[in-house]
Hints:
CATH architecture of the largest domain: Up-down Bundle
Structural class: mainly alpha
Distance between the termini: 29 Å
Number of strands: 0
Shape: globular
Helix content: over 70%
Number of domains: 2
Order of helices and strands: HHHHHHHHHHHH
Amino acid sequence: MTGADPDRRRRLRPLTPRDPHEPHRVATPLELLVDLCFVVAVAQVAARLHHGLAAGHAAPALLAYAMVFFSIWWAWMNFTWFASAYDNDDVLYRLMTLVQIAGVLIVAAGVPRGFDGRNFDVITLGYGVMRAGLVAQWLRAARADPTRRRATLRYAVGVSVCYAGWASLLLMPGAWPLVGWCVMVPAELFVPIWAERRGMTPWHPHHIAERYSLLTLIVLGESVLAATLAIQSAVVGGGVTVRLGAVIAGGLLIIFSMWWLYFERPAHQLLVSGRRAFLWGYGHLLIFSSAAAVGAGLAVAVDHVTGRASIPARVAGASIAIPVSVYLLSLWAMHLRPHGDGPARSAAFPVAALLVPVAAMAGWPALQIGLLLAGLVAFGELSRPRHSHD
């Protein structure tokens, strides 16, 4: 399928596999809409993380953030890789995507209950709605793609069984749901590995790389929005001070440098096998979650310098430093180191990740971290081989 015929687009058609070598494969408007709906949920999670950190409840806030963010990210992963292999853009495909979008919005609505009361019933309901839409798509693919029928049926069964496991956690008392979560996460991650053993689905490397880069952009944009709202509230309350100005300047440098570093090298060159694609795709959980957490950290820094948060300065600095360090290490390990750019360029990222917490202990953590990341960007550009055209 090299292009959708407008006259046939809304007809029901078999959900046949797409060509993994299809030229000029790009994200569709429907995929972009799905991304925006997922980021609504990400924004809710990041906002709750911000409030938890600012209130001095770092440990429970981080735990809830990890649990909820995983469910959002994993649902996005499932949709994205399926769409790369089987998107035929007919009426039923669009309607099943709408079902998944509805599930995402239910998850977003349940985030406050999950964070504040550790009540995940609404989130689990939304997750189930998303799973229902996805299972229906896998069953359609199984019918239309006999070559990969075993793989697609394994996906449908695995997704269904895992959701039954998540739903059962609602019935467990005390700390058992947390134990169950630690069991269910590996189970979810294993489903694609188990399914692809019966035939690799025909995902498109360039399309997958673009989909991940687009979500990275949107998540970085959410971080900008979170910091902007915090700054706006501070300005209305008391105007711009020197310390607030340092947070603003540092935040701008941090976000811009994170964008620059991510898009320094093309990702599709790394997606040359199923194993490498799994590692790269799964590793982005840390990239996405840390990028979203940076926005929460910047908002905490704003609250600290304006006196809205009664937390120690080191906690405010760590709210930025920890996600930035995680972002640098995961970006280096999954996205940049495999390119083999030489020892100096490769070592720069882990060294910078170690220096970020040191910079956070100074009196101007956001600004100093921003300057450090800007220095990393400058080093990368100056040490780039002259013959490189990436």
